[in-house]
Amino acid sequence: MKKQAGFTLIELIMVIVILGILAATALPKFVNLSSDASDAALQGVAGALSSANTINFAQYSLHPASAVLINECTKAGLASPSGLLEIALDTTKYSTGPAGAITKGTTASCTLTPVTAGTLASTTFTLTATQ
C-alpha cells in the first residue's frame, strides 16, 4: 500500500476555523489603536507646548527682549524671534483655553482640546506669562 503525505480536508478546515477565531478576538484591539494614537498625539502636543513655554520664560528671565511676550493660553503656540521657541500650534487640529489674560510671572493651567476627539476630550499644560 502507498503511504500518502499531506493533510486531510477536515484538518485544513479546522485550521481555518481556529485562525478565524483568533482573528475575531484580535481585531477589536487593532480597531481601537487610532483612538489611542489621537490621545497620544494630544498629550505630546500639550507636553511640547508646556516645555516650549518653560524655555521661553527662561529666555525672558535672562534676555527679555529676545523672548515672546505671552499673557494668555491662546498664544501658547507662538514662535520666538530668537528661534528658541519653535512650536506652532495647528489651530485646525487643536484649540487652547481658557481665554483671558494671565498676570505676568504667574503660571496658569491651560486646556488643549482636539478638534477631532479621541477618547480624551482634552488635556492640560502649564504656561507662565511673560507679559
Task: Walk me through the topology.
Blueprint: H1 9-31, H2 33-62, E1 94-97, E2 107-114, E3 123-128
Antiparallel strand pairs: 1-2, 2-3
Describe it.
It is built from 2 helices and 3 strands, in the order ααβββ. It has 131 residues and is of the alpha+beta class. The chain has one domain. Strand 2 and strand 3 form a beta hairpin. The radius of gyration is 26 Å and the shape is rod-shaped. Helices cover 40% and strands 14% of the residues. A 3-stranded antiparallel β-sheet has the order 1-2-3, covered by helices on one side.
Order of helices and strands: HHEEE
Distance between the termini: 95 Å
Shape: rod-shaped
Largest sheet: 3 strands, antiparallel
Question: What's the short version?
Answer:
With about 130 residues, the protein is α+β, with helices and mostly antiparallel strands.
Features:
131 residues, alpha+beta, 2 helices, 14% strand, 40% helix, single chain
